[in-house]
Design goal:
3 helices, alpha+beta, 115 residues, 33% strand
Length: 115
Amino acid sequence: MHIQLDLPMPPSVNHYWGIRGKQRFIGKEGKQFRMVVAEAVAEAGVKLEGRLAIHIALFPADRRRFDIDNRIKPLLDALQNAGCFEDDEQVDELHVTRQGIKPQGGCTVVILNIE
């Protein structure tokens, strides 16, 4: 079983989380991204169990530099929160690629059972 989702570009960890004193919370951009991911997962109607492989293609909106690893944790967190899988501990393989520029950016996520 697998699922493919076309999503907006995940916010970086710096914009996903907010910090107030010693308290860490999901910020405005993080909440908006979670909502979009939850809608996409609900529409797909799939919850994956067992061991998983995830392939992520990131499409920047412009030529600005960014670290691809800063986008992964917010994406996995949002997918887990949306019920796509129980826990990101299930992920045994993770492949991330930076693709060409796409107006307004985005990402494509393919998640596969590998058992």
